[in-house]
Queue: 3 jobs
Job 1
Amino acid sequence: MPLDKELDKTKVVFIDTCRRLMELGELSQDEYLGICDLLDRLDELDKETFDRELRRVSRGLSDLIS
Amino acid sequence: MNSSDARQSFDLPVDISAERQVLGILIKHPSQVDEVVDRLRPAHFADLGHRRIYEIILDLYHKQGRISYTQVYNRLVADGVESPADLLIALTESFVSLSELGPCVESLIRQEGLRRIIKACDSIKTLALDPSSEDLAALQARAQELIFDATQSNGGPENEVKNLLEVLSTCYLNLLRRREGLEDAYGLSVRFPSIDGMTTGFKKKDLIILAARPSMGKTALLLNMVTNVAKRGIPVLVFSLEMDAEQLGDRIVLSELFTYRQNGQPMVTSHEYQTKLSDEQFQLTQKVFNDLYSLPISIVDKRGLTVAEIRAKARRCKAENPELGLIVIDYLQLIKPPIQSNRSWSLIVGEMVRELRDLAGELDVPLILCSQLNRGVESRENKRPMMSDLRDSGNIEEFADVVMFLYRDDYYYPEVAREKGTEGLAEVIFAKQRKGATGVVQLRFVKEYTRFIEETKREVSHAAR
């Protein structure tokens, strides 16, 4: 599968995971919405900005990923 | 809602793969929504999960929101859709390139069109097998209506919203065509120059009322116009609720015989046609028959038709003859009204006229509807019809685009007409024209041949009498 399609698929899996984390109480609703917004703007951000933004939106998730 | 569970019956034609491709492309390339929004409706998606995704995309598009996997995902979650991720992951893998969008849209339109036909057939079958169904004629009319609806163009709301630039472009092209004298730039000519001069031809989608008191020559004028139109190869559909088809046929032949003359006299009189012809007259009449055989005129002469039955027959005729150029109905008061005893006659007639106007619009043809006038005319000294003479028969004039009255002075005042030399003169009074001027033109009525001919003097004044 081409890279951008793989990325779309990953986004869907990622957001699905985040929603489940929210349902489990691991993420707040604000964190979840912030992550959604970040994913929508993913194409506009370089990796460093994304990492920084993700850390700002959700410290816990950022630590989990890194 | 699970995608496969929610999917409609697989007995129906569907293209699930194309549905996924279209949705995948639209989410990945939101700018492409512009290309499909006026062609695809949610109903084009057979899979209910896909249909919901398309509705979400349209909603985001119309609210100028961002169209993305996350936005669609959250809306699906809010809708309580089960496993939204599975639905969307299938979309991410569905297409390779943008060029797939066009063929996939075509496929969805085709499948949806097929589904509509099959559903219409199912509905017809259910109706036909229902023991409590209405009478056969009503059932046939309903069946035709269902099929007609199912076979209408497949697009969604295209062409419903037109911007001024499009409208003015069409107006300007029409202007150029008229300037170049192109015939199709005008409405439908009935080959009476005085009438055509007033109307610039009857326009498509227009409802034209031709009203008069009995014996003024409504049917004669109507048939003359029908023959003139058909002689140019334009198909015409005639609903004759009073006369049978043979009577109409005889009238058309007789009317044509008037044109053959010798030493200024018609070669075959009406009486001779109705009795016995000489060999020479018979040959001439045969020639008239031969000329008329090929005219594209269809006649429905069944009495007591309802508007629904007229609509069904007209739709079928249009489907068989897409070039159908004119529908005429003789006459309004003989159309069988729906059974609604609690409504006033005026409202019922108004509703019937409105439905006939809608039919003209739907089939994109002018529709001429003959109408009787009430007796109020007789009680006045000046017996020329007026708009108010129509009002007792429902608000006919409100729905009509053109209202024409036919009036002959010699019918009421034969002595005066003889003295004034106005015998045989008929006035066509244009009391209303939505797209043109009102006024009066004159024709000459040759009663024996039920034939109207052009009168040199065109404009007359009501004040003359």
Note: The longest strand of chain B covers residues 425-433.
Job 2
Amino acid sequence: MLKIKDLRVSINNKEILKGISLNVNKGEVHAIMGPNGSGKSTLASVLAGRDIYEITAGTVEYNGKDLLDQAPDVRAKEGIFLGFQYPVEIPGVNMMTFMRTAVNEIRTHRGLEPLSAKAFLALSEERKTLVEIGSRFDGRSVNEGFSGGEKKRNEIYQMAMLEPTLAILDETDSGLDIDALKVVANGVNKLRKPENATIVITHYQRLLDFIIPDFVHVLYNGKIVKSGGKELALELEIRGYDWIKKEQGEN
Amino acid sequence: MAEGENRKLLDEITQSDYKYGFETNIETEFAPFGLTEDTVRYISAKKNEPEFMLEFRLKAYQRWKQMKLPNWAHLTIPEINFEEISFYAAPIQKKAPGSLDEIDPELRSTFNKLGISLEEQMRLSGIAVDAVMDSVSVKTTFTDTLAKHGIIFCSMSEAIQHHPDLIKKYLASVVPVSDNYYAALNSAVFSDGSFAYIPKGVRCPMELSTYFRINAKNSGQFERTLIVADEGSYVSYLEGCTAPMRDENQLHAAVVEIVALENAEVKYSTVQNWYPGDKQGKGGIYNFVTKRGICKGNNSKISWTQVETGSAITWKYPGVLLRGDNSVGEFYSVAVTNNHQQADTGSKMIHIGKNTKSTIISKGISAGFSNNSYRGLVKVMKNAENARNYTQCDSLLMGEKCGAHTFPYIEVDNVSAIVEHEATTSKISEDQLFYCLQRGIDTEKAVGLIVNGYAREVLSKLPMEFAVEAQKLLAISLEGSVG
């Protein structure tokens, strides 16, 4: 589904990603771990199409097409979803209006009829239960005045509404208490399907107690320095990132 | 705002440019160019006016001749050559229209194209319309229905003929002839406009509205509107305006006066969409307007709501004189400037009576190379015990080349007054835009959403039908200004 080949990315002439290669297939969950500043969030942003970065080398293929060629809204319409680490507030824009606009834009792109108000509300009610938010977003503006936990639940609710093919969750666990973490992870797990894939970016192992990955990659200093199964996350939990840093230093 | 409407209008955002820019091909009668005493007499004679009106006009003309153009606004106004303007232009109708069928089909189709049906039965929404083209009122609808409630709603010309006592009593009672340069000019040469009188205790059963259309070339439009709400009455009034696209600038200098007597309430809403000029700043309307209301009686209330997207230059400060005790004045405004447009607009709230309250909410949006200024005056007079004002001015900047400015004036002569002023300046952030894009919403739609969110507080004050129109306008006016 996703083929990243030797991807190099700079910002202000400073190289952040120094040759990333990664393949993600249907049905897989990949976890990308690494210490602060290793380039995890940059990778997520570049895949979603944020234009503040300069891509200096490499290719990204998504469902057989050149991804880097596509505008960010086209990528979203083609099924890429980014769960933001810091979801932005949009004052005055009603959450449900925003969501319905997004859902119908994506449906139109896929050749489906836009949802009527009634059908949209029915779908919304159903998907809200995944993240246990009840009517908490009704009548409010996008993320405005939301608590940290509400913002993250909102990201997963939107993901459930948009039914992405490839979901990239950037530090979705940061700032969540353990109960909220379970709710969010549970939502993600329920959305796992054989035809979808998920990339979970996280600093800590604890999220991976609830979202069990098929593969774990360690990103350090702009490179994937280690890949393995879910046991790699446990090893990192015990030994910390110093072990990786030391190993890299020795190489 | 219903979700459905929102959707629909977002779909329409993609259509670009000024869609009201067409020209009606109709024979038009002009006054000779320039402004002299003869011009004033010509206009008065054309309208077959009683002597008192001619005197009113001539006095105004004499005052105007002695006045100077105001230059305190944050505007760059090219010199206006009054010798090249015709101060009266009237579409020639084959014969005076007695019924709808007799209105020139060309005029009917013009207003149909603008979405203003002059046929009452076609209007589901039940809004009474006075349609004004250039210097004359073409048709006022629902006059009979309104008359049953004792409501007078007609063109200013008719009011002068049929209700001279009301005109004598109230015309220029809120905006004196010598108030300012453009008000004096208007008083001398105004040609038509609307008049509404709501009798004691009557709640007007439908929205009243005037639709102003400039069509003729090289002409100015000087309309005059007067609304009188007698004791305990209520009326909601709407005003819309458009003009053809022309390379030359055209002058529009209107005066609107509102009188609210004891316990009366008047809501006045404007969606101003005069042709703003092209992307290089060529052409467009100069919109120099004086709008003022007086809360004359105790417990009366006047609200101004305006959405300003048009005009090359806008100069207007709808205000309220709060004379009655416990009276309330409100001003809600969204002013958008794009390309080379300039706007200097705001409000004046003058607290005279006791326990008077005023609210000013102003949302400016600047894009392109435009300049957008808020200018407001809050004045609390000596005897205005317990006056209360809240002012909020927000500016939204789009791009690097535009400007937003705030000029608040506060004069307080009574220690019991509480006057609050808040101001913010913000930008549509890259983060907000990217968030929308990442959800599959393209740039134009995202800007539409964000801007409408920013202006929601004001838009929610508009009557439903106008709110939809206004939301569309905001999005279209800002098309192409980001990314």
Note: Chain B touches chain A through 29 residues (CB under 8 Å).
Job 3
Amino acid sequence: MPELTRVVLAEDGVLLREGLTGVLARFGCTVVAAVGDAGALLAAVDAHDPDLVVTDIRMPPAWTDEGLRAAVAVRTARPDRPVVVLSQYVQPEYADALLATGAGRGVGYLLKDRVADVAEFVAALRAVRAGGTVLDPEVVRRLLRRSGDPLDPLSARERQVLTLVAEGRSNSAIAAALFVTEAAVGKHVGNILAKLDLPPTEDTNRRVLAVLAYLRATA
Amino acid sequence: MSNLASALRRRRFLISGWPWRSLGYLLTTAVVAAPFAAVVWPLGLPWLVAATDVRAGRFPDPPVLVLMAVGAALLIGFGPLVAVPLAALERRRLEFLGDRPPATAHLPAPADPIAWLRLRYAEAATWREVLYGLFLAVAVPAWYGVLGLAALLVAGFLGSPLFAAIGAARFQLGPVEITGVVESVPVALLGLLLLAPLAYLAGLTAAGQRAVAHALLGDGYGTDVREVTRSRARLVDAFETERRRIERDLHDGAQHRLTSLTLHLGMARVDLPADSPAAEPLTRAHTQAKELMVVLRDLVHGIRPQILADVGLLPALRELAAQSPVPVTVVGPQTVSRPPELVEATAYYVASEALGNVAKHAGASRAEVRVEWTGDLLTLQVADDGRGGADPAAGTGLTGLADRVAAVGGRLLLATPAGGGTLVRVELPCRS
């Protein structure tokens, strides 16, 4: 991250909290507060005005969705504050609740397991910090599965690209993942948008939101 | 809390409130029984005539036989419709005698009236209740007549001085003849003495009726069996609590530590030059740790899905459906309130096993999970369009499902015609 990113981190497990703090520091972030519950998270956000909030969903006292509710509260107070939520399992409603805040910009919904792949995890945080939208591949897979018929006109390759677009990846990232040129990706994306009757756009984030809105509407 | 049976055994019965309560019970019984008697006695009349004929060595006349058949048909046809609500009232009325109303032996009622009729007419409990209705209509009026005469006689004894003073000088009271006010005094005293047996008679009558009501209107089991059922439910509950504890331990302990370990391995990989001799073993360790995370997550999920506890049955079922290789639609109510935890867990377990069977055995192209919840009954139905013919005895886990459903007082129904798909339906009562 070019500028110094100030992060508030909420995770109730001490070991993982320390591990995540280490990862963030290693990649040039300053963890201004690392807390263990939703109440402390809200207080820390008020006190430190961070550039990025990373929070677990399941936290004390009830171990259900405190973290998500805190995240939504943070976003409601300031819709452009980037927030990444970590979840133990895929719950499409959780992603919906997050995407409904701040027009879906600058939010991330990731499975907790993703922290294991440090580089990808940090890339996702960076994307959200820059105002992007990042959804866990598993959430996207669910959306694609539920959509079914409306995606019939897409070729297998286009579906592959669509999945990566919905995850919030840029053309260059998609090109790298599929081992093709960026120009080829651009062509696929253009075809997908045309086939799904979505407005053509070069802006990665606007594209993600359009695709996600489409998938959620047809799911 | 005391009840009539224990009160009758106490010496203070006569000076307690119980004779009055018994009297109250008997009088209200008369009110309840009267309309039934008015209907049943005329219907029973042809039978009485036939019985007299047979006794006299004659074959009953055809019209009598027809009337007998009509009476029986009416009783069988409409009896349950009347007896079921009557039984509900009578169970409640036992509270008046200090009893807890007995549990009904009826299965939970379906909302659909046709289904209700089909279920109720097939239940033994319904016909026991019809029998109770007959008892109220036939035996109760007969015995109450005797009882009423006795009460009238005692009242006459007590009032005899008054009658003698204002009315006739000579009159007959049952076996006793009164000739004057002075002569009537011992009779009045006798009446006073007879009040005690009368009170006991009322108490015993109420107690007898109570015994009949318990025998015919209860759930057919003694308290012992009911207690066993309840303790089995408690045991299932204890298992559920234990599963929750194990899940929590694994999640907070092992899973958490493993995630942290994998994160550190991932960190090390970032900083290790790719040409280092440690790079390859480290990559392998990291990969294995990630695989272990998946294994552990599946394990914890199998013990007790977090999503079920956190957000409820319907989202958990949707997640289950999303994992199925066969396309599954989930239909259910979006309610704020939730069934008891054990009921939710049982329903989830059934859905999970049933969908597993669909994937493994049914050869289906699609399946549907349907949930209905009325507040006291949760119904879950898993239907597929596969080959059907599932055999509960052939290790499809259906018997295990039925056991688990029975332990929480529910029941499992199976429709699986060969070639016609399979439908598994469970009904789980949600008594709190």
Note: Chain A has a mean pLDDT of 87.
